[in-house]
């Protein structure tokens, strides 16, 4: 894992097999491997140990009413995407509702 630039470590990593302690090797912003919790950190890689905080893949919200254009004071693209990111959502699927003009 010589190209690893970040190792993210947690006692609670969500994987397809369930929740377990693990270290996640990241290379160029992409997950390269999910390793044992106590895996050695490659030379030059930064270690971020988040303790018991949960690490999970980005979530997809398939039912969002962004109401942009036209009603951005209620919920626009700017606020909707930032709120989603703060909650671990990486993808929004907009279901237009009351947009002016209709989308």
Structural overview:
The chain folds into 2 domains: 6-55, Urease, subunit C, domain 1; 59-94, no CATH class. The protein is mainly beta and 103 residues long. The strands form 2 sheets. Strands 1, 2, 3, 4 and 5 form a 5-stranded mixed beta sheet that branches. The radius of gyration is 18 Å and the shape is elongated. It has 2 helices and 7 strands; from the N terminus they run E-E-E-E-E-E-H-H-E. Helices cover 14% and strands 43% of the residues.
Please write out the topology.
Elements: E1 6-15, E2 18-27, E3 30-35, E4 46-49, E5 54-55, E6 59-64, H1 72-75, H2 77-86, E7 89-94
Parallel strand pairs: 1-4, 1-5, 6-7
Antiparallel strand pairs: 1-2, 2-3
Q: Which structural traits does this protein have?
A:
single chain, 103 residues, mainly beta, Urease, subunit C, domain 1, 2 domains, five-stranded mixed β-sheet, two-stranded parallel sheet, 2 helices, elongated
Order of helices and strands: EEEEEEHHE
Count of spatially separate domains: 2
CATH C-level class of the largest domain? Mainly Beta
Report the CATH architecture of the largest domain: Roll
Radius of gyration: 18 Å
Which spans have pLDDT < 50 for at least 5 consecutive residues?
A: none
- Summarize model confidence as the mean pLDDT: 89
Q: Please identify the structural class as seen in this structure.
A: mainly beta
Please report which band the strand proportion falls in: under 5%, 5-15%, 15-25%, 25-35%, 35-45% or over 45%.
Answer: 35-45%
Q: CATH H level of the largest domain: which superfamily?
A: Urease, subunit C, domain 1
* Terminus-to-terminus distance: 47 Å
Largest sheet, strands/sense/barrel: 5 strands, mixed
Shape: elongated
Q: Count of helices?
A: 2
User: What portion of residues is helical?
Assistant: 10-25%
- Total DSSP E strands: 7
Would you give the CATH topology of the largest domain? Answer: Urease, subunit C, domain 1
């Amino acid at each position: 894992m010589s190209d690893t630039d970040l190792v993210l470590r947690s006692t609670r990593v969500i994987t397809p097999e369930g929740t377990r302690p693990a270290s996640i090797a990241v290379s160029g912003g992409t997950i390269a491997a999910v390793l044992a919790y106590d895996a050695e950190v490659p030379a030059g890689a930064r270690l971020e140990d988040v303790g018991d905080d949960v690490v999970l893949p980005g979530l997809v919200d398939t039912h969002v009413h962004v109401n942009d254009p036209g009603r951005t004071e209620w919920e626009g693209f700017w606020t909707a995407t930032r709120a989603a990111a703060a909650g671990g959502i990486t993808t929004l699927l907009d279901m237009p509702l009351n947009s002016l003009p209709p989308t």
